[in-house]
Structure formats: structure tokens, C-alpha cells
Amino acid sequence: MEKFSSWRDKGTGISPFMPVPLPLSQEKSAFKRTLLSVVKVPLFIIKLPFFILFTLAYYITSLKPLANFVFFVLFGFKNIDFSVEGVKKSNIDVINKNKPSPNDIIVANYSSPIDGLIYALVANTYNWHNVKFLVPNQSGELFEYSLWSLVNHSFDNSVSGSKVESLSSYKNKVVFLLLEGTTSNNKALLPFVPLSPNYNFDGFAVKTLVSKISPGYLTMPIPVSKLGYLFELLTNLNKLTLNYIKLKCYKFDKFEVVELRKTFALNSLNSIDKNLNIAEKQKFVAYYKNHDVKKTD
Ligand SMILES: *[C@@H]1O[C@H](CO)[C@@H](O)[C@H](O)[C@H]1NC(C)=O
Ligand SMILES: *[C@@H]1O[C@H](CO)[C@@H](O)[C@H](O)[C@H]1NC(C)=O
Ligand SMILES: *[C@@H]1O[C@H](CO)[C@@H](O)[C@H](O)[C@H]1NC(C)=O
Fold first, then answer.
1. Count of domains observed in the chain
2. I need a labelling partner for 149 at 20 to 30 A (CA). Which of 20, 34, 67, 109 fits?
3. In which domain, by residue range, is 153 found?
């Protein structure tokens, strides 16, 4: 019989698909738990109309300040700390120039429904239409998602964007490549899906972007309800210093997956079992949904 431990990496003991527990479920004192839920519900009800309004307005107008309002005010993130390997923090001009830009292919982590928004916010382009997310299916064919359809894909891997025949039509776009193909829980990088050899990355600047999302429970290895996830986003009562995104960018001369992957390994001690791939995650999700959530074995 299968157990949760079947999806644990043998070497490190990491379970990349296991959700990070929510703060409320971790709270030991029943009094505090009740108090927190009492505060969170009205907060959610107050913020929700603003969320809908500003998100819709951003969708229609592509004005970044609207998205910034959602991200920093409504979700309560303190900052997005963007750094470039080998460039001093004080060198702001160079750092800004190296932000994801048109004609860039950026291999990045995929761990949550807000990844698209985060990446669009740091991109050197005003218009969200210029930011594209390419995610491979299990056979290595790429599919195109927008910031919005990527949200759907993160909740349901079977949601499919339009198939990418060739990368030549992405010349003036900021292209994020989410090679894991599915979300994980921020503890490790999943194996990259080997891409179909038909894709040619010539003519693009190649970068990787290693991300860290705090708090970790905002990563979503296992789909939860969309409303439940939004509830957590809008009612985050952590200290401000605990809510941040860290992004580190590396530049490359060519698209060489093995080399690209190393930058992720540098930022983590965890290289994960090759077998913990999309198919295994699907099995894990099915198993998880039929068993006691608290069980870890
Ligand atoms: C991936 O997409 C291609 C092209 O649509 C399709 O032929 C293939 O069956 C898909 N693979 C999987 C595992 O769904
Ligand atoms: C995402 O899914 C919702 C329903 O679940 C649908 O209404 C919406 O059109 C989808 N959005 C995109 C951009 O695919
Ligand atoms: C991105 O990958 C690195 C390297 O494996 C990992 O340390 C980090 O937690 C990942 N970030 C996210 C947000 O999943």
C-alpha cells in the first residue's frame, strides 16, 4: 500500500508536494485560534471588494500601480527584493536593467498562484500582455499562459493554454519558463521536464530567477479552493517583515538546462529525486485527498 512517505525524497527526507500548514491550524491555544478567525472574517469581507475592483481595473488597463496596490496593500507584502548575481545592491541602475525584460527567456520557480503576478510586477514592461508564461506538459510540449490563465493552471494542472509551436513569436515578450511543469512547496525544485528538441531559444537573453516566498504557506503544492487561498492572501496577519519575496537573477550565454538548473541548486541544499515528477504529483494529490490531512506517514 502507498503511504505519504512514498513521495518523500529518499536522500533529504523532503516531501515537495506536502502543503505547508496554515498558521491557524498551527496555533495551539484554542482562544487565540478563535480570536484570529474572528478578526480574519471581517478583514476578508472589507478587503474583498477592493481586491475585485483593483484586479479588474488592472486586467482592463494594465496599469501597474493597480497591481502594486493589490500586492502590497491588500496582500500585505513588504517588498520584492530583486538582486542580480555578481551585482552590488547599491548598483540600482544595473539591477533594474537586468530585471526580466522583453527578449528575455527566464527559467523560474513555480510554486504558487501568485507567481505570475510577482513575475509581472518585476518585469521591465508596463503591459501584462507582454509577459508570457510557458509551462511544459509531461511530454515536454510548451503551452502559453497569461498572468491570469496561469492562476487557473496552478489550481488545476489539466487547464491548458495554447500550444507553443515556435518561440519566434515571443521576440518582444518577457518570457518566463516554468520548467517544473507543476507547483511545489518551496522546499525544493522539482525535476525539470525535458523539453521537446523542436524549441529553439536562439536570439533570447537567457536568465534564471530563483524565488523565495515568505510566508511559505502561500506556496500551493496541492490545490486548495480558490476562495480559501484568496482568504489567506487577504487576511495575512503576520508581522510585515515576514511577508516578502526574494528574487535572485542569474545570466547565461546560452540555453543549457543542466547549467541553468545549477543556479537553483546553489540556492538550496536540496536536489530532489528525479522520480518526483508531474505524474507522481498527480498520484500524491489523489492520495492526499482521500486521507487524513494530518497524517504524515
Ligand atoms: C502534451 O501536449 C502534446 C501536444 O498537444 C500532446 O500530443 C501530448 O499528448 C501531451 N502530453 C501529455 C502527457 O498530456
Ligand atoms: C479561469 O477559470 C475560471 C473558472 O474557474 C474562468 O471563469 C476564467 O475564465 C479562467 N480564466 C482564464 C484566464 O483562463
Ligand atoms: C526555488 O528553487 C530553489 C532551489 O531549489 C528553492 O530553494 C526555492 O525554495 C524555490 N522557491 C520557490 C518559491 O519555490
1. 1
2. 20
3. 77-224+238-289
Centroid of ligand 3 to alpha carbon of 108 (angstroms): 9
Give this prediction's pTM: 0.85
| 55 assigned to some structural domain | no
Ligand 2 contact via 152 beta carbon (within 6 Å) = yes
Series of mean pLDDT values for 10-residue runs along the chain (297 residues): 65 69 69 79 95 97 96 96 95 95 95 95 94 94 96 87 93 94 72 89 94 88 86 89 94 91 71 67 74 49
What is the atom index within ligand 2 of the atom nearest the CA of 226?
A: 5
Identify which of 81, 110, 186, 276 to mutate to test ligand 3's pocket (most ligand atoms within 8 A of the CB): 186
Q: How far apart are CA 103 and CA 269, in angstroms?
A: 31
Measured in Å, residue 113 CA sits from the centre of ligand 2 at 13
Give the distance (Å) from ligand 1 centre to CA of residue 140: 8
